[in-house]
Specification:
The chain has about 325 residues and is α/β, with parallel strands linked by helices. The chain has nine helices and 15 strands. The protein folds into two domains: about 5-175, Stage V sporulation protein AD (Peroxisomal Thiolase, Chain A, domain 1, 3-Layer(aba) Sandwich); about 185-335, Peroxisomal Thiolase, Chain A, domain 1, CATH 3.40.47. Helix 1 (about 55-70) crosses helix 2 and helix 5 packs parallel to helix 6 (about 240-255).
């Protein structure tokens, strides 16, 4: 049976556009020093968050962000029918252990840094399809837990490369509902895995840029809309090096002219904060969306937003085996 929601090759046009009824963010101390600090709900005073490991702190950040968005909307945890979330750690343990404490039906996801978009894609389909009325989409990351897993524990003092990105200590959570006043999720483009043979785990932005451009190009083609349709197209998290590559690919493809394009990783921190190529991590796009971006939509500063979160789908094991970095990007259109 042919669906009437499919557009082109990879895009879904939602017939009952779900509403983003509420959002919340918690970020770490360095993240809270950024130019966006006034848009975050809570800035931690330290990275431990009263826990004894960074991994436990990461799970608590996610758990408390979900509680925060529920409270902001005058709801109870029991009102949420299911939540979708993921993180960077093996077996998505930060999300799993948060789900243990929250006792909400749960679907765990792994899309690396694309997880916020992936959770929104699936949450929107579940609500648009009439399966649920209230769903939470969320994602989180922690700088020190990610460094320990993917690079080196910071205690070793290993010199970072200019192309390295700072994994954001942050979480973002949104309530997706079937009725209410916008912003609305209107269209979704599910990305394909793209691998151009880049194997340098110290330069993930360059590996992810082709996937981001491929998804954006497909989104415009599937919907037959001009490349300046959106007030802002924002990728995440390519950082400064990956963003520069994406801009070159945009010129080649003839899409997304400046100034309506930027990248979460490139703008998450102030340039004075010494984070090399910028920010990364599931929490980067999550916090940017649930902090600055949606709050700017709320006041009408942005009316049409395309979030294209990107993920590098490698693991330490595959990197040790000499594998290249497969990447993916999912696009979520949000409109007032």
């Amino acid at each position: 049976m042919k669906t009437d929601k499919k557009r082109g090759m990879q895009t879904i046009a939602l017939s009952n556009p779900p509403v983003l009824a509420g959002w919340a963010t918690i970020v770490g101390p360095k993240e809270g020093e950024s130019p966006w600090q006034n848009y975050y709900d809570k800035i931690l005073s330290d990275y431990m968050f009263e826990e004894d490991t960074f991994e436990k702190a990461e799970s608590k950040i996610l758990r408390e962000t979900i509680k925060l968005v529920v409270n902001k909307n005058n709801l109870q945890l029991d009102d949420i029918e299911v939540f979708l979330s993921g993180d960077l750690l093996n077996q998505t343990v930060s999300s799993n252990y948060a789900a243990r404490e929250l006792e909400i039906p749960y679907l765990g996801l792994y899309g690396a840094c694309s997880t916020m978009a992936e959770s929104l894609v699936l949450a929107s389909m579940l609500v648009d399809g009439g399966f649920y009325n209230k769903v939470i989409a969320a994602a989180c990351s922690h700088h020190y837990s990610a460094e320990r897993q993917f690079r080196f524990p910071v205690e070793q003092g290993v010199q970072s490369n200019p192309t390295n990105q700072w994994t954001a200590t942050a979480a973002g959570a949104l309530i997706v509902e079937n009725t209410g006043i916008g912003p609305y999720i209107t269209n979704l483009t599910v990305g394909k895995v793209v691998d151009m043979g880049q194997a340098d785990i110290a330069d993930m932005g360059s590996a992810m840029a082709p996937a981001a451009v491929a998804t954006i190009k497909q989104h415009f083609a599937d919907l037959n809309i001009p490349s300046d349709y959106y007030d802002l197209v924002i990728t995440g998290d390519l950082g400064s090096f990956g963003m520069a590559i994406a801009e070159q690919l945009f010129i080649k493809e003839g899409i997304v002219p400046q100034p309506n394009y930027t990248d979460c990783g490139a703008i998450f921190f102030d340039k004075k904060q010494k984070v090399n190529a910028g920010a990364s991590g599931c929490g980067c796009a999550a916090a940017m969306l649930c902090g600055p971006l949606l709050n700017m939509m709320k006041i009408g500063k942005i009316n049409k937003l395309l979030l294209v979160a990107t993920g590098a789908l490698m693991s330490p094991i595959t990197s040790f085996q000499g594998e290249s970095i497969p990447a993916i990007a999912h696009a979520v259109a949000i409109e007032n």
